[in-house]
Design goal:
By secondary structure, the protein is mainly beta. Helix content is 9%, strand content 48%. The chain is rod-shaped.
Length: 229
């Protein structure tokens, strides 16, 4: 079943009459004269993963003369990468246009969005999700303290994206991997500087303490400390 058929059935009788009255038709054949679906605005943007693109996506349905066609059902579908688009479908306005908000996903950098309308070629929009690339230990690594006590300096972790851009709103998690003890908080969300701060209490047995630090798509890092007798 085509997209247009599904949409018309969903609209029901009243919606069908409204849709039919809005669409431009050829004077001879009575067939809707939509010739193309084009991108007006919003292609090839970049934003941090999980956020809205700065500009709305705007698409236009046109006839052979390039004039906008009202009442055309345009459907939007996400490719790989996650995210969301709102609305997922709409009827073109008097200018033949629809506008939608695209929230890019957090699963991969390359994001795609497919736009379709009955009887014309689909178009593909692209976006780039800026994702965490590096976890940097800004403070607190390789300290020593008495076993069972807290380290003097807090652990400061900084999450960076492309071009060393601080990544805000990223969840950073700590997991003890050797030596026991505890890190508090076990997870936190980065600030505008891309940072989280945590306290590390070493295990009660003297020796090496380690913990893994993870954040989204960035490679994990290991932090270390030494518990003294």
């Amino acid at each position: 079943m085509s997209i247009s058929t599904r949409l018309l059935r969903a609209l029901g009788g009243a919606g069908l009459l409204t849709l039919a009255s809005c669409l431009k038709k050829d004077a001879t054949t009575g067939v809707v004269t939509v010739d193309a679906l084009t991108i007006v605005q919003g292609n090839n943007q970049a934003v941090q993963g999980g956020r809205d693109l700065p500009l709305a996506i705007v698409l236009r349905a046109t006839d052979k003369s390039g004039a906008g066609v009202a009442g055309v059902p345009i459907t939007l579908a996400l490719g790989d990468g996650g995210g969301a688009v709102t609305p997922a479908s709409a009827l073109s306005d008097a200018k033949g246009e629809i506008a939608a908000k695209w929230t890019v996903g957090t699963l991969q950098a390359t994001q795609t969005l497919f736009a379709t309308a009955p009887g014309v070629s689909a178009v593909t929009l692209n976006a780039v999700a800026l994702l965490p690339t590096d976890i940097v230990v800004a403070q607190g690594n390789n300290q020593s303290a008495r076993a069972g006590s807290g380290l003097t300096n807090s652990i400061v972790i900084r999450v960076l994206g492309p071009n060393n851009t601080p990544m805000q709103g990223i969840t950073v998690a700590f997991q003890i991997t050797a030596g026991g003890g505890a890190i508090s908080p076990q997870s936190a969300v980065t600030t505008a500087l891309g940072e989280v701060v945590a306290k590390w209490t070493l295990g009660t047995v003297p020796g090496v303490n380690t913990a893994a630090v993870t954040a989204s798509t960035a490679s994990p890092v290991i932090i270390s400390a030494t518990g003294t007798p």
